[in-house]
């Protein structure tokens, strides 16, 4: 089985979402040492933003591409291939300005591809990425749960849930820490609880 580990925080070793995602991956690999882990750090190596050239290259059958098409789509194709090969995907995703980091959005633009991860048919859209286990390691500076008066501003977890449901994987698992910018004590308490939850994730082979 293959595990794809994605991190998107710009904060390096000070990142809460990175700490949680690392705990999740450590737990899963300890339970199943045969897991092959591929890691992609979207902050250290930002994926290219979607361009007209990439979009055009993606619309052409690979056998009909020119060398220019291949060059334009090379990194986007590599990102898509990593995702398609993964049985488990762990995504470290902080909330920036009520949404996700731009580098994570760029990564998503390369995995949401017609004919590869979804398609339209007589009954509407059909996700083609079902069967993957998606784990979201989330971090938010404030509190944005359903009971919060600012819950409507939360477009991080809600967006990612919508994307993966569209791709056929609606049951994502969220391990998150909220209120990490409220103060040191709240940050540590939220982080400890999230790391504890991540460390207790069921083994990958138990995924549906």
Describe this protein with a few key phrases.
19% strand, two-stranded antiparallel ribbon, single chain, 208 residues, 5-stranded parallel sheet
General description of the model:
This protein is an alpha/beta fold. 38% of the residues lie in helices and 19% in strands. It has six helices and seven strands, in the order βαβααβαβββαβα. It has helices at 16-31, 52-58, 67-85, 102-111, 157-166, 184-199; strands at 2-7, 36-41, 88-94, 118-121, 124-127, 133-139, 173-177. A hairpin with a 2-residue loop joins β4 and β5 (124-127). α2 (52-58) crosses α3. It starts with a strand and ends in a 9-residue tail after the last helix. The model has no long low-confidence stretch (mean pLDDT 94).
User: What percent strand?
Assistant: 15-25%
Number of helices: 6
Shape: globular
Largest sheet: 5 strands, parallel
Strand order of the largest sheet: 2-1-3-6-7
Separation of the first and last Cα atoms: 13 Å
Portion in helices: 25-40%
Q: Mean of the pLDDT scores?
A: 94
State the total count of DSSP E strands: 7
Uncertain ranges: none
List the secondary-structure elements in sequence, H or E: EHEHHEHEEEHEH
Structural class by sheet pairing and helices? alpha/beta
Radius of gyration: 18 Å
Summarize the structure.
The chain has 208 residues and is of the alpha/beta class. The protein contains six helices and seven strands; from the N terminus they run βαβααβαβββαβα.
Topology:
Blueprint: E1 2-7, H1 16-31, E2 36-41, H2 52-58, H3 67-85, E3 88-94, H4 102-111, E4 118-121, E5 124-127, E6 133-139, H5 157-166, E7 173-177, H6 184-199
Parallel strand pairs: 1-2, 1-3, 3-6, 6-7
Antiparallel strand pairs: 4-5
Helix pairs in contact: 1-6, 2-3
